[in-house]
Amino acid sequence: MQQIQEHIEKLLGCNLDDCGPEGLTAVLVASLHRKFDFLNNCLVPGDDDFVRDVAVFHEKFGLEYKSEPLHPEEWELRHRRLKDEHTEYEEAIAAGDDEEALDALVDLVYIAIGTAYRRGWDFAEAWRRVQHANMTKERGEPSNSKYGSGFDIVKPEGWVGPDHSDLVADTPKPLTEQDLEQDEADNS
Description:
188 residues, mainly alpha, putative ntp pyrophosphohydrolase like fold, 8 helices, elongated
């Protein structure tokens, strides 16, 4: 019970024994209000289905998922685009340009979701599994963070990561240049 009280006090930022019922209620309401305001401001009202948006985008350009392996050129392009957006993010942060940093983060996610879509992977289900596993992690201390930071989130002892094997089992691997060469030789 003491651990629960300490955890609640850490979350709320006050000592429960010193609050009293009215003070505790006020602290809880203020804390919940801050959290809901944050969540409401992070999502686009009424339109937070990012996976659907990316699928619609790909379908507009004739790039819907067709249960076929990705062409090596597309696979390489997607890989380069992810690296480029990451570089753009780093450059924006170094320049202090928050708008460009945000744009680069959104582009990273957009390309990542698009890549999962083109591979036939259920990104939404994978996200749910990662979210569930992440919620079992703990706030780190500099002593147990591989980055030496108290802001890090760490895996507790016995932590089990999500299993995505069923989500990728029946999807084709991207083609390689050797696959294309062999296919060309077979058709000659």
